[in-house]
Design a protein that fits this description.
Length: about 400
Amino acid sequence: MSSTGISAVGDAAAEARLRRWRMVLGGDGDGTGCVLSGRDVGMDAALSALYGAGGAPKRGGERSGGLGGSAPNVARWLGDIRTYFPSSVVQVMQRDAIERLGLSTLLLEPEMLEAVEPDVHLVGTLLSLNKVMPETTRETARAVVRKVVEQLEKRLASRTRATLTGALDRSARTGRPRHADIDWDRTIRANLKNYLPEYKTVVPERLVGYGRAAQAVKKEVVLCIDQSGSMAASVVYASVFGAVLASMRSIATRLVVFDTAVVDLTDQLDDPVDVLFGTQLGGGTDINRALAYCQSKITRPADTVVVLISDLYEGGIRNEMLGRVAAMKASGVEFVTLLALSDEGAPAYDREHAAALAALGAPAFACTPDLFPEVMAAALEKRPLPAP
């Protein structure tokens, strides 16, 4: 390549860097000397409406947005960002707009809901507005929530069923397994007395294998979900997983949500959208009361898995809460504590309570939706949990 060609490439790269910095810094203090044109002008305006000086919270807690709190302006802005940015970025910008500019009330308008890009965080916001939502908006909101739920089920359901069906199959042992079902580790250990030194081999006189789980209920799962405001994404994912588990004949699933009151939503598990609209995000937290209810519903402790999904900020009686966990574990219940069930990264949680549960043999950890099937499979088989 000639020196002229190299120079042209270098100039193009430098111009691209200046353009990116100009978009990051905005127009009030760019210092880049870069002038935007064409599509970049519209993209910059969409970013400035949210992240520019007008979009940032003012001192003293007052908020002033570049969108002006006007429904037409917001609707136009929502259309613009979907034009300029990919879906994943649009979802982040919508979430930032709701938090920074206080646009939650505009989501109560059906026309506004039809313009947004649905995702888990938007569902959480809609659920928090559920009690003040007018009837004219409710059906539109349900349609938005259903779209997200169907996306999550498509992503998670088949893998969850396959993983847990395998765990249930392996939980049953047989002395006459098919070749594909032989548990070679257990078979070798059971036949070590038949070792033939001259051939350096073990004669498998007795085979040990995995049985095939019958259609009858083999295990019972209780999902106990904290519906405080910080757990919004976890509530969404847990409701979807609850519906998937309930669809498996070999697992009897109960779903309980709580704040300071306890609500059993098991009879709505055939439709996770109904489950979600049966929750009420926000309010206090009484884990002890919720666990007392769950404990009262356990009839087969040795075959039961209780999954507590909570950040453990307990407003009830701490010692009683820990006592109930200890009693359930002593009776044979497999107890799992998830500090969050979401893709949001490390959650805030009560470290003292988490340490106390770990001391009881019930470690508490955050879990992504993709890891949840493996966690449940380990719990059903009573193996060590694959905690991150």
